[in-house]
Structure formats: C-alpha cells, structure tokens
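Lecture 7 notes: from sequence to structure.

We start with a single chain of 247 residues. Read the sequence below before looking at the structure.
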Amino acid sequence: MIAKDAILFLREDILDDVAIPYLWSDKELLRGLNYAEVQACRRGHLLIDEITENDSGTASTAGTAGQKPLCLLNLIAGQATYDLSPKILMVKRCQIIGMNYPITGPLTYSEIDELMFGWRGTSGTVGTSGEGGFPSAFINEPGNTITFVLAPYSDGIANLTVSRLPLMPFTFEGSPEINESYHRGLLNWATHLAFMKPDSETFNANRASYYEKIFTDEFGPLPNARSEHLRKTMMMQSRMRPRQFGS
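Now the structure, written as tokens:
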C-alpha cells in the first residue's frame, strides 16, 4: 500500500476528515504510519535480514557514528565486543566464515559463567596445527552490542541474521518495508495516534483505546527491556544443539 493511498483511506473510511482544512495534516498521518511500522516490527519482529551489510548511516546516530554493522561484521583478533546498528532488535543467528555451523547464542552472562569460569577477555585457543581458534558463543545486549566468547584469535568475518527496524521512513509515494499483508494493520496504530492528538476536535480516548487494542491483537504487546532480553534467550534455548562448550 502506498502511503498516500493509506492516508486517503484513513481520511475517508476511518477518521471522517475530508473537509478542508483537515483536522490532521498529511505529515501527521504519514508520521503516524511510519511510527506504526516501527511498533509492528518491535512487537512482531517482522523484518528478518541476513544480507544487508550495514545501516548505511540511516540510524539516528548517523550524524556522529556513521554506518553501523547489520549483517556483516568484521572481526578483530582479540576483540570480543562490537557495536552493532541500533536498527537491530535481535541477533538471531551468527556464523563465522570458516566454521561449519553457527555459534551458540544469544546467551546470558550467567549462562556463560556456568559454562566457562573466567571467560572475560579470553581469546580463542590455538589449534594443534597452529591455526587460530574461533568463538563458541555470543551475547547480544540491548544498546546494541555483540560479545563473543571466546574473543576471536584472528581477524575474520561474521555473518549475522537479525530482526530489525525499518532502515528509512517511507514517503508519501513510498510503501512500508514490511510485507504488504501487514500494511492494513498499520492504519490502526496511526488512527490510535490521531485520536490522541490533544485538541478538542481530535482527542477521543475511547476510540484511541479501541484502535490500540486492534493493533495489539494483530502485532502483540509492546515489549519492555526485560521481556526483550528474555525473548532473546528463550528463542536461543529452543534451538540450542547439545554440544560441549568450546568444541
């Protein structure tokens, strides 16, 4: 659905806002639709990416930090922790080039402490033939960083599969990045925001709550920081393969 068509639908079929001057401007409704896509991704993890190398400087930190890694991470020998793009919601999978299987993760600090005492700051071991060792697990913290256990012994490349936020806001002539089957649901959050506008002609708490509920029923509740962390570890545990740590 193109944004301008979604805005027309909002005005004619939901908001009853067809007389000029409008109660809600096009910019307000477009902003609401963009925020709805972000909300949908945070709740439903709708954008899964394994090919976009970096965020192209589109994150809010672009002015000071520039491009941040998304799905391709350059590893430095002895360095365990790396900054990732704030567009990433969760690292779902990590595989280092040269390894035959993805490394275990994301784990919590306590889980790794139980597996290997004194792991912090420790590099991968050198193999019997002198080749460098590889990390065996990773931690993905909000913020957004990834920490490898053990730190890579040599330089390398890690391929990440992530769930993420949209890279760019869509314009009047553009469409949301999420699958088209979810576009209609975004109208409910945009309507919720419209009825929260603090004006005597626009504010309607009952209707705002009604459309918020419809949106939540489709995309799920908005997670807080703790539930985001638990979701990472629970999803990891459900797919862990039993093998000795460090093997």
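The radius of gyration is 22 Å. Keep this in mind for problem set 3.
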